From TrEMBL:
Residues 34-66 are annotated as: Disordered. This is Lipoprotein LpqN. Keywords: Signal. Residues 48-60 have a biased composition (Polar residues). It comes from the Bacteria. The keyword Signal applies. It comes from Saccharomonospora viridis (strain ATCC 15386 / DSM 43017 / JCM 3036 / CCUG 5913 / NBRC 12207 / NCIMB 9602 / P101). Residues 1-29 form the signal peptide. Residues 34-43 have a biased composition (Low complexity). The keyword rRNA-binding does not apply.
Length: 227
């Protein structure tokens, strides 16, 4: 029974990754642009689906340009998600953070985090994915990869992995699942530079299937700012 449950979990994990990879490829196709590394400037807040908002202004649903990314993007949050200052969830290096209070439990609230940086052109997403794991091992030495899949092209690669980890919450261990999607874009003016956007969903295992759907929906809305 244990083995059967494990196989079932791996089956739907692969299904989730297939959906997320499809969305990641759509993001890659829409972000074919020179990566200058210049932060974008948020516009004034508006309303409805085509409105814009500061990354720290809660908006769900709605479009939000993200500052401090090598490639400026916009996106819409699914219902129930609210943007918060990254410092509220100890994610100071993130460009944008959203939480879903409706699925809070045992001291943990699911998060969507966006970050980005510029690397040498020869740096692979697999290398960066391993670096992500090393960072998580500072929290949980036993973190493990449930599934990993690469996508895209040499100039616009993508990588999605699901990792399982444990964090201390209120004095007890809290098991979590995290989807990480990395999207690389070669600088069209400087082949020695590559911009990488990082998207991550972290949630409790019992909410993973439901919120992975939200993550897929969120990724499907990501587009270059002003597109």
């Amino acid at each position: 029974m244990v083995e059967e449950g494990k196989m079932r979990r791996m089956s739907w994990t692969r299904s989730v990754i297939a959906l997320i990879v499809g969305c990641a490829l759509a993001v890659v196709a829409g972000c074919d642009t020179t990566t200058s590394g210049t932060p974008s400037t948020p516009t004034d807040a508006g309303s409805e689906e085509q409105s814009t908002a500061s990354p720290t202004t809660p908006q769900s649903p709605g479009a939000a340009p993200v500052a401090e990314l090598p490639v400026p993007i916009e996106f819409s949050l699914p219902d129930g998600w609210q943007s918060v200052p990254p410092s509220e969830v100890n994610a100071d290096n993130a460009a944008f953070v959203a939480v879903h209070p409706g699925f809070s439990g045992d001291g943990f609230t699911p998060t969507i985090v966006i970050a980005g940086d510029v690397h040498d052109g020869g740096t692979t997403l697999t290398q960066l994915a391993e670096e992500e794991l090393e960072q998580l091992r500072t929290v949980d030495p036993d973190v493990r990869v449930e599934e990993r899949r690469e996508s895209g092209t040499a100039d616009h690669p993508g990588l999605t992995q699901v990792v399982r980890l444990s964090m201390q919450q209120n004095g007890s261990a809290q098991e979590l699942l995290q989807i990480q999607t990395l999207i690389g874009m070669q600088d069209t003016q400087d082949p020695d530079r590559k911009a990488v956007l990082r998207f991550a969903l972290t949630t409790q295992p019992e909410h993973f299937e439901r919120l992975a759907g939200d993550f897929q929906e969120f990724l499907s809305t990501v587009r270059p700012e002003g597109a």
